[in-house]
Write a structure and sequence with these properties.
By secondary structure, the protein is α+β, with helices and mostly antiparallel strands. The protein has a four-stranded mixed sheet with strand order 3-2-1-4, covered by helices on one side. A hairpin with a 3-residue loop joins strand 1 and strand 2.
Length: about 90
């Protein structure tokens, strides 16, 4: 799967990591629904760090279609809310 972090670039991520990422996505969704800004910041950072750690960066000149687009680290709670699907940022 190709994942884009807005403002940073794309990474190739093995589908086997989706379960762990979905746990963080569920936490992020709960924090957004409750308006927990500090929890939201912490969990968004953890989610993006996990994608960076588990993924392999694609070259800057690569323009692969992204299957998943994640917000920039400094995205606001409202900006992320607009990106959400029914099941969070990560499907599944």
């Amino acid at each position: 799967m190709i994942v884009r972090i807005m403002g940073e670039g794309q990474l190739k991520l093995d589908d086997s990591h989706l379960t762990a990422l979905n746990k963080l996505d569920d936490e992020l969704l709960a924090e957004m629904e409750s308006g927990d800004e500090s929890g939201f910041r912490r969990t968004l950072g953890a989610l993006l760090d996990a994608v960076r750690r588990l993924g392999t960066p694609l070259p800057d000149d690569s323009l692969e279609p992204s299957e998943l687009i994640l917000p920039a680290p400094d995205a606001s709670l409202e900006e992320v809310r607009e990106m959400l699907r029914d099941d969070g940022l990560i499907p599944g």
